[in-house]
Amino acid sequence: MMVISIGRELLQTSCLTKYREARLPWYTIYPTVPEFSAAVGAKTYEGWLRDLPADDPVSLYLHVPFCRSMCWYCGFPTTITRRDALILNYLAVLRDEIRLVSEQTPRALPVSDVHFGGGTPTLIGPAEFLALMEFLRRHFAFKRTAKVAVEIDPRTFTAEMAEALGAADVNRASLGVQSFDPIVQKAINRVQSEAQTAAVVEELRRHGVGRINFDLIFGLPHQTVQSCVQTARAAVAMRPNRLAVFGYAHIPSVIKNQRQIEETALPDSAARAEQAAAVAETLVAAGYREIGLDHFALPEDELALAQKTGCMRRNSLGYSADTCKTLIGFGASAIGRVGEGYVQNEVTRDSYTRHIAAGRLATSKGYRLADEDRVRAAIIERLMCDLEADVPAICAAHGFDPIRFLDSAEGLAMLAEDGIVDIEKGFIRVRQEHRFVIRAVAAAFDAFLDRVAP
Length: 454
Fold this sequence. Notes:
metal ion binding; alpha/beta; pyruvate-formate lyase- activating enzyme; 19 strands; oxidoreductase; 21% strand; 40% helix; single chain; rSAM_horseshoe; cytoplasm
């Protein structure tokens, strides 16, 4: 019996490894960005904006692609600068884009959510940030309960900026932490002490920014299970409302700055899985609830409440309690979503600037959703958010036969055979212990993915 038990354990480990190591999309949106094309451009987006319902609330995303230094692990497009003039010039273009977009909409659209991402949005000076928020409020009708979130690098954050965020009614801040291990920090070119981070958290709360998120990463060079747990415990001591725990993806052939990372210092697949499990166990023991693939939230946090009621969403920013159908993206490379489909701005800052300076939207590509895309997107979103999906119910809501989608999901049978999912009459449930490979389940419904076994 012992030999049989060990054999099954090894088989399960082998099965899980093939799913963990598969190169799969994160499914923040579906279809994913590689399916975008120039067939959807500025003129198409103008039409979509004009057709937006005047009373439906929208979300806004503003991309600020500047940092003071490069983190070797980072995969986001950003410009390293010590010059504030570069940022001020970009803000002028951003305001022009806001004006151009608002001119296309039926009237000042109601706004329920705003997110500043980057890069490091808080490199915008306090006075300039307040002016930008005022500019947004002049062109959109902010709801009294609007949620405003901003991403922060604690290493460059100031008390003056905390005061400005409070004055601008920012109510959520997301802090990049990644790891508190000094050896890991040196290896990724991001040295940031616990004391520095704690001071920023205290300053934010003192100015009324009461909802705090932390980003952590596992799988970094020289990381161990012990150092991951120590980082998680240090983070928990500051009691953030949410934590996002991402696995580092090493793609130096695509992301040049990752070539600075010593590959031999990276943990292997088994070690990464152990790190992820240890961090999850630490956070759950501290009172956080597991949310989807990689998030954790206190029970009273709006994301945990959205999960509990089945209202949690997944969009280009990740997991969200935001239920808006429309996301308007501003800035270089920003992605937006309207009822008809997705759009993305020019990726490079120079190209983005040229379009806006010429008085036209900077949309470079996008995707027009077909009815089948909407069904697949709904199935994938529920899997990613709830770890389960009632395929027949989703199909019925869209007027489709579920057999067509279940039969085309070629990988489902293998996932069930490997013990990843349970399937009953089209209802798919991912076993809780296998939440880390949920993307492999979602991929079964991706009509564009190369059907090569993981």
